[in-house]
């Protein structure tokens, strides 16, 4: 057995992971106690990493038009298509769409090939959907895309404002760190700004439940308040900034009542926030997708940054605007220059910068202007202008707005290459050529996390099938195009050295992103590289950027950016808010395969306010439909009083692989921020209606059930197979008839029970003594067996007995709360009734909350509501 340190491939916290490898298998992962990001902690997704490796669902060989081909043939085909397309239609007709989940080495070679050697700047990334408003705001304010904070600032600040961030679920290890810091310093105040009451609000001293999209009012009003209450740091403003007078003039006399009214807030609460902010020097504002994913996202980020600049609360311990990154290497991608409006290594498109990069690369075919940003790029493909598109490590058919437009783009584009580790994704379905990429654990490289720490991801096991690392695939194509001398990398270490050298090239302090000192690493030093925060300059000056009040603008001053707040207009019944669940990662290509990660939330659901639901005649668990002019989604109703009237929340994780009509992008228009190009993924409008259901069903199957044609279905992985819920307008008998074919070839020996009068149909089939499927249909969903029991079917003996009395077989543990120890709500409520009155006591009794801690907010909520019930009863 060997032990190896690596980095988690999910969120931008960038936790260090220690993997135990036995032979060709990763048998266990634990947190790396020495890593600065997590000091040993992992959340439930990180803990389950070993379970995502292996063959299941993996793309194992290159496939051209659905047929297996050799790598040699695949590389040849790409090189030929690129050459032909450029010859016939010009370099603007080719594009690459990359991802913040690539490693910096992958990203570097892709960017270099496109921008220096193929003459196309059409290389953009899913970071456009994720970080680009923060990037644009940093550049406007600081002159360079610099995140001036580290996690230590979250420990030391006295006021933490969390805007549009549900860190309890999305950056769990950082959230636990904040929880611990608040415990150490009970005077530390936390304000959460979010239209939804989220798990993160659990630690908030104040939750400002604003109207969707109204953040710029809050922060413009705040700047005004700071000005009117002598809270501006006049000296800092005079020495290090420009633009404050213009900005105050643009805001005008935006008073507290107007702000409160525009944001739907209580003026007393707003005032409380403003005075805390005015009076707390050590303030950090941590912001995330609630502000970035907006048609005015860049302005919102600048509205936040403006308040920090005006108070001089930046570049010092415990203070600063902190855009926390989403993907594991969203930050590294920005360093490499993977966005279409960046060139490379934090350089843009001035003639001097183009010249510098051209000389460094010795590039023959250098671009001279930015390329198309993601949404425009797909629109251009839909319009027939992009003829060759290479998509890598992202699933745009699910994640870009306006799925129909994206589908048209993928269909119309003449040649689509998709590099992925998963065989079946909504995007891969449209590929002409599919390339098997080596995922986490099978490849080597580096990632940069939210606090600028560069860490190694290390290869733990050999690639599955014929999978290859992305950097190598791109390099092979470059070499096949006759560019060997420029792309002659023996290993990722060589790519990293070149990337580091470019960052230091003719830098002399002109760019904060400088890791020039790492350009000399030997292969062995790269292999053993410890996590390191940039800058890492050759002159040993590794002082934190912006600490000296020097900015990377022409005059060295930061810009306080004038802006006028705007509100998105609601049409239709209900606004659509979208975001993440605790235990799933994006389109679930990896997390969706791990049974225990589907326990917290199982089937595709839509959360709405209970009163809105009642108005539409819906109760918990009913089937609802949200529809607008773009499309429709259907999901089970979840009642959530934390969602304000007139709003809804739809998780982003479901694709056509896991549900029907569960893709929220079908409701999101392709509206983008004019500065950053980031789509407004958090805001849309739709009408809500109940969907009549005559038949509910649960199907356990060894293989995924093909349920196409059923009104609603949604599937999770369970031990030994899959569990699919179905709902349909037809009677159980008709649905059984319809499913016959899907289940037909799996039937070996079948036992069935049918009570036709009540529409109660049950059937179990087996093969060699193992269940191959079990089907339960009924007009009343409460008459179906419980999920907990259905999830154990793989271990049960098939036969008659299984079809009777199932609901009493095993007590339902209720909604899954703690995924680490598999503890359900019913058990927790029982333990509370038996006297467990704190999170710690519940942990002692049931172990819940004692591993990753992600469920602690929910444990507290249950403790609170049980306590309230007791009080009410008393
Ligand atoms: N479990 C899990 N963790 C993840 C990921 C994952 O897929 N799963 N993905 C990672 C990635 S790539 C990213 S980018 C991050 C995202 O991390 P977050 O930004 O924290 O996550 P989201 O759930 O997308 O959205 C955050 C919050 O924005 C709120 N919001 C919506 N509209 C508004 C508004 O107008 N104003 C304000 N103030 N708030 C609003 C939503 O209600 C939501 O609670 O998560 C990372 N971590
Ligand atoms: N409505 C709405 N839309 C959103 C968001 C939202 O909040 N609301 N959030 C946006 C944000 S912030 C983000 S980051 C995006 C995320 O959206 P996507 O990037 O589309 O989501 P993923 O499912 O992570 O896609 C990654 C793909 O890469 C594959 N993969 C994994 N590892 C590797 C590898 O090493 N190499 C290769 N070649 N492939 C690999 C996976 O199997 C998967 O298919 O979604 C965006 N879309
Ligand atoms: S918080 Fe969880 S998902 Fe994020 S890096 Fe750490 S272990 Fe991975
Ligand atoms: Mo993201």
TrEMBL record:
Alphabetical list of InterPro entries matching this protein: Asp_de-COase-like_dom_sf, BFD-like_2Fe2S-bd_dom, BFD-like_2Fe2S-bd_dom_sf, CT_Nitrate-R-NapA-like, MoPterin_dinucl-bd_dom, Mopterin_OxRdtase, Mopterin_OxRdtase_4Fe-4S_dom, Prok_molybdopt-oxidoreductase
One family name in Pfam for this protein: Molybdop_Fe4S4
Record's keyword annotation contains Metal-binding: yes
Domain 4Fe-4S Mo/W bis-MGD-type: from-to ranges: 1-57
CC terms in the record's Gene Ontology section: membrane; oxidoreductase complex
Superkingdom in the source lineage: Bacteria
Listed GO biological process terms: cellular respiration; nitrate assimilation
Gene3D superfamilies for the chain: 2.40.40.20, 3.40.50.740, ADC-like domains, BFD-like [2Fe-2S]-binding domain, Dimethylsulfoxide Reductase, domain 2
Keywords assigned: 4Fe-4S, Iron, Iron-sulfur, Metal-binding, Molybdenum, Nitrate assimilation, Oxidoreductase
Transmembrane segments: none
Molecular function via GO: 4 iron, 4 sulfur cluster binding; metal ion binding; molybdopterin cofactor binding; oxidoreductase activity
Cofactor: [4Fe-4S] cluster; Mo-bis(molybdopterin guanine dinucleotide)
Family: Belongs to the prokaryotic molybdopterin-containing oxidoreductase family. NasA/NapA/NarB subfamily.
The protein's name in its UniProt record: Nitrate reductase
Annotated source species: Halioglobus maricola
């Amino acid at each position: 057995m060997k032990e190896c340190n690596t980095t988690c491939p999910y969120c931008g916290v960038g936790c260090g992971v220690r993997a135990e490898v036995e032979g060709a298998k990763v048998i266990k992962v634990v947190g790396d106690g020495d890593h600065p990001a997590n000091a040993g902690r992992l959340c439930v997704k990180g803990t389950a990493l070993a379970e995502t490796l292996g063959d299941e669902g993996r793309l194992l060989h290159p496939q051209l038009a659905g047929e297996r081909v050799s790598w040699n043939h695949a590389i040849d085909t790409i090189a030929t298509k690129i050459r032909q397309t450029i010859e016939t239609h010009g370099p603007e007709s080719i594009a690459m769409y990359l991802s913040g989940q690539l490693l910096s080495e992958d990203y570097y070679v892709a960017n270099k090939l496109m921008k220096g050697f193929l003459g196309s700047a059409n290389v953009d990334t899913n970071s456009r959907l994720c970080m680009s408003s923060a990037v644009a705001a940093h550049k406007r304010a600081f002159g360079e895309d610099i995140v001036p904070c580290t996690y230590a600032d979250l420990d030391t600040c006295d006021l933490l404002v969390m805007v549009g961030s549900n860190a309890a679920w999305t950056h769990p290890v950082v959230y636990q760190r904040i929880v611990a810091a608040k415990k150490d310093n009970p005077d530390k105040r936390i304000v959460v700004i979010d239209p939804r009451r989220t798990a993160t609000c659990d630690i908030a001293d104040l939750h400002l439940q604003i109207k969707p999209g109204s953040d710029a009012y809050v922060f413009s009003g705040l700047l005004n308040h700071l000005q009117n209450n002598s809270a501006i740091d006049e000296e800092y403003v005079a020495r290090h900034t420009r633009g404050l007078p213009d900005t105050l003039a643009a805001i005008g006399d935006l008073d507290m009542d107007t702000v409160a009214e525009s944001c739907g807030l209580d003026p007393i609460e707003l005032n409380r926030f403003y005075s805390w902010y005015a009076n707390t020097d050590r303030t950090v504002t941590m912001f995330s997708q609630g502000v970035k994913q907006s048609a005015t996202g860049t302005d919102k980020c600048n509205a936040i940054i403006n308040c920090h600049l005006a108070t001089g609360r930046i570049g010092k311990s415990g203070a600063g605007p902190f855009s926390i990154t989403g993907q594991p290497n969203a930050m590294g991608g920005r360093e490499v220059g993977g966005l279409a409006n960046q060139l490379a290594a934090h350089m843009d498109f001035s003639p001097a910068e183009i010249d510098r990069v051209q000389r460094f690369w010795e590039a023959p075919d250098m671009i001279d202007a930015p390329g198309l940003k993601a949404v425009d790029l797909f629109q251009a493909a839909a319009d027939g202008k992009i003829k060759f598109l290479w998509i890598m490590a992202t699933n745009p058919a699910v994640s870009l707005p306006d799925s129909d437009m994206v589908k048209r783009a993928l269909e119309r584009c003449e040649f689509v290459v998709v590099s992925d580790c998963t065989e079946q994704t909504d995007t891969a379905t449209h590929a002409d050529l599919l390339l098997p990429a080596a995922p986490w654990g099978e490849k080597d490289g580096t990632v940069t996390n939210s606090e600028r720490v560069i860490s190694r991801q290390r290869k733990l096991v050999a690639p599955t099938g014929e999978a290859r690392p992305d950097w190598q695939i791109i390099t092979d194509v470059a070499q096949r195009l006759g560019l060997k001398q420029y792309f002659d990398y023996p290993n990722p270490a060589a790519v990293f050295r070149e990337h580091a050298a470019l960052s230091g090239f003719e830098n002399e302090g002109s760019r904060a992103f400088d890791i020039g000192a790492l350009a000399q690493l030997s292969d062995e030093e790269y292999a053993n590289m410890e996590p390191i925060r940039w800058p890492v300059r050759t002159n040993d000056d590794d002082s934190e950027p912006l600490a000296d009040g020097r900015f990377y603008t022409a005059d060295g001053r930061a810009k306080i950016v004038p802006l006028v707040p705007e509100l998105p207009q609601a049409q239709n019944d209900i606004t659509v808010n979208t975001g993440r669940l605790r235990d799933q990662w994006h389109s679930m290509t990896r997390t969706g395969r791990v049974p225990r990660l589907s326990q917290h939330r199982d089937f595709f659901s839509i959360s709405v306010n209970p009163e809105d639901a009642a108005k539409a005649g819906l109760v918990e668990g009913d089937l609802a439909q949200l529809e607008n002019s773009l499309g429709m989604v259907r999901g089970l109703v979840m009642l959530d009083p934390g969602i304000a009237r007139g709003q809804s929340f739809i998780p982003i994780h479901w694709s056509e692989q896991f549900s029907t009509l569960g893709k929220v992008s079908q409701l999101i228009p392709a509206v983008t921020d004019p500065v950053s190009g980031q789509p407004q993924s958090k805001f849309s409008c739709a009408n809500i209606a109940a969907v009549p259901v005559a038949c509910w069903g649960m199907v356990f199957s060894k293989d995924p059930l093909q349920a196409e044609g059923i009104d609603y279905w949604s599937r999770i992985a369970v031990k030994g197979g899959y569990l699919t819920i179905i709902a349909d307008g037809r009677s159980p008998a008709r649905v059984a008839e319809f499913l016959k074919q899907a289940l037909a070839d799996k039937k070996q020996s079948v036992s069935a029970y049918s009570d036709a009068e009540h529409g109660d149909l049950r059937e179990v089939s087996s093969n060699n003594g193992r269940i191959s499927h079990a089907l339960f249909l009924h007009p009343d969903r409460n008459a179906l067996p419980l999920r907990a029991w259905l999830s154990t079917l793989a271990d049960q003996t098939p036969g008659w007995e299984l079809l009777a009395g199932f609901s009493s077989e095993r007590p339902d543990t209720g909604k899954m709360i703690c995924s680490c120890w598999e503890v359900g709500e019913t058990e927790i409520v029982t333990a509370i009734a038996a006297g467990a009155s704190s999170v710690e006591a519940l942990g002692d009794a049931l172990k819940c909350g004692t591993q990753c801690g992600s469920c602690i907010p929910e444990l507290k909520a249950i403790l609170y509501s049980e306590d309230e019930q007791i009080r009410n009863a008393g």
